[in-house]
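Hi D.,

Good news: the full-assembly prediction came through. Inputs first.
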Amino acid sequence: MTRKFPYEFIGEIIITQEQIHERVNELGRQITQDYEESDNLLILGLLRGSVVFITDLMRKIHHPMTMDFMSVSSYSGSESSGFVRIDLDHKTNIAGWDVILVDDIVDTGYTVKTVRKLLLDRNPKSLRVCALLDKKERHKVEVPIDYLGFEIPDYFVVGYGLDIDEKGRNLPYIASVDLAKYTK
Ligand code: IMP
Ligand code: MG
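Then the structure:
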């Protein structure tokens, strides 16, 4: 068990706490504006990566809302395969709701694409996607991202909810992982 903190596998800080804070404020402001007329706003997060982002974002949404979560996993280790399994489904009946699906990061796009399709079958009034990060150059399928925090290059990153094998979620910033220094 390592005691060193921050984790020894941290490469460099890509997005600082201040940058995140500022961008989350902007996204909250934008969502507040866009859903001004909404009667049923649901923020639907994908566990566990989006938790930190959502808890900050929701406090910048100045409109009545509720929150719910789903947990999905894409098959195989770090390389997404396109198979997405639902481990935990949301509780709310989303029919007639304005849903914002929130994920931490869009990589290949399979997760958001699959979950989005599934949610659409459940007849929400509207469905938009919000992601903190987007590795655009890695997309294998097209996904609409209506609210995006930051586009980042093809690095493996941790922090602000994102993990590598469950480690690194508690870092307050987004940092790259130095894979040469990383051991499982
Ligand atoms: P996608 O289905 O390939 O778009 O994968 C999205 C999921 O892979 C995200 O929800 C993350 O859980 C995970 N992921 C992709 N890239 C990273 C990364 O750089 N750091 C941490 N998790 C990542
Ligand atoms: Mg995830």
